[in-house]
Design a protein that fits this description.
With 374 residues, this protein is mainly alpha-helical. The chain has 2 domains: 2-77 and 174-360, MFS general substrate transporter like domains (Growth Hormone, Chain: A, Up-down Bundle), CATH 1.20.1250; 87-167, no CATH class. It has helices spanning 14-45, 51-58, 60-76, 88-97, 154-163, 171-178, 181-212, 216-228, 230-248, 251-275, 280-304, 313-338, 342-360; strands spanning 104-106, 117-119, 135-137, 144-146. The strands form 2 sheets. It has a two-stranded antiparallel ribbon.
Length: 374
């Protein structure tokens, strides 16, 4: 149950789920580098449009694609794997009752419209599907767990039910989440990594043209590789994060992996900027190495996010994502200010990335005493 909304994916596989979908999304930046120059050249050569007009007409193509995808999502996709968002509470109650646990638990956010409490029977997690073909026994008295499901103790299950059901936060709770040091960590790390990705994506084709004397299509093709690597590298980061979490059972392991990825990313950025290579093999190799850690760190980051203030997961997810976009703006200003000195701008971004991660590495990953913060 993703993002701990008890309607998606559990925390032990959330890194994989988030990074896979986000990686495919970010790969759109790479596809854009292939498609837009090709559309532009086609309009110029076959339709005999001027460069001024052809470039503007090119934007009709992504506009049509975006509207078509949006319409398909609206018409054919469910809100969650359990159905409509409005029915999520009924799905939560059904899943929880399908597992054995004795006791009565108060669940915040009015889980059921008809009952204020949920009666739970002995011994297993609230996070599994009812489907018999996906269940497996884990020992006498321990109930049943679905494949890929976190195996929690009864006390942890109760804490999870109390603390991880997403509810509409009050303004006071929103402010508390915004001002939390844990929220600042995920936002600061995403500011550096996703911000760097956005800003570098925007100048990479021009950077290649300046260093290697390539034409528009050639530079676009090489620059596209950076975005397309998201298909592989961001999911690898999510997989690695889930792996260390399952092995250690500690969110600290995810957090340390996040800082490790990010600091190495900063090192690659410094190397790219300082070397500023005019050799294609060297430059493309450094960019690929940087992409592995930068895009992987984005995947690791969003495997940490669901552990922080899970009851307000939408708030922290949105704030973290916004910080990444804000980083893209700030780093784009650096590129704009330094003009054609792309290498200098890149190593400055690398230094910022290393400094920020070292500065927040000491902050605990989840608030002290948080219910459900296993």
């Amino acid at each position: 149950m993703t993002n701990t909304e008890i309607g998606f994916f559990d925390k032990n596989i959330i890194g994989t789920a988030n990074s896979l979908t986000a990686g495919l999304g970010n790969a759109g930046g790479g596809i854009t580098y292939f498609v837009m120059p090709a559309v532009y050249n086609s309009l110029r050569v076959q339709r005999h449009m001027t460069p001024h007009v052809a470039w503007r007409v090119s934007f009709i193509v992504p506009g049509i694609l975006i509207l078509s995808v949006a319409a398909c999502l609206l018409l054919f996709c469910q809100d969650t794997p359990t159905g409509a968002w409005a029915d999520r509470n009924a799905a939560i109650e059904q899943n929880m009752r399908a597992h054995s646990m004795v006791g009565v638990v108060d669940v915040p956010g009015d889980i059921s419209a008809e009952k204020e409490h949920l009666a739970l029977r002995t011994g297993s997690s609230p996070f599994a599907s009812d489907s018999e073909d996906t269940k497996k026994d884990v020992g006498p008295g321990n109930g049943v767990f679905a494949d890929g499901e976190a195996q929690l103790t009864p006390d942890q299950m109760l804490d999870t039910a109390k603390g991880e059901v997403v509810r509409a936060p009050t303004m006071r709770e929103i402010l508390r989440v915004f001002l939390s040091p844990q929220t600042f960590v995920t936002a600061a790390c995403y500011f550096c990594t996703f911000g760097a990705e956005l800003s570098i994506n925007s100048i990479l084709g021009t950077y290649y043209q300046a260093n290697f004397k390539l034409n528009l299509q050639q530079a676009g093709n090489w620059a596209a590789m950076f975005g397309l690597l998201n298909v592989v590298f961001r999911p690898i980061g999510g997989l690695a994060s889930d792996f260390v979490y399952r092995r250690t059972g500690s969110v600290w392991s995810k957090k340390m992996l996040l800082h490790g990825y990010s600091i190495i990313t900063g090192g690659f950025l410094v190397a790219i900027g300082v070397v500023n290579s005019k050799n294609k093999s060297t430059m493309f190799g450094l960019i690929a190495g940087m992409a592995f850690f930068l895009e992987g760190s984005n995947g690791v980051n969003y495997s940490v996010v669901p552990h922080v203030h899970p009851h307000a997961n939408g708030v922290i997810s949105g704030f973290t994502g916004a910080a990444g976009n804000f980083g893209g703006i700030i780093f784009a200003i650096i590129f704009r200010y330094l003009g054609v000195h792309y290498g200098k701008a890149i190593w400055i971004i690398g230094v910022i990335t290393i400094a920020v991660n070292l500065a927040v590495s000491w902050i605990r990953p989840i608030p002290k005493g948080q219910i459900g913060g296993h």
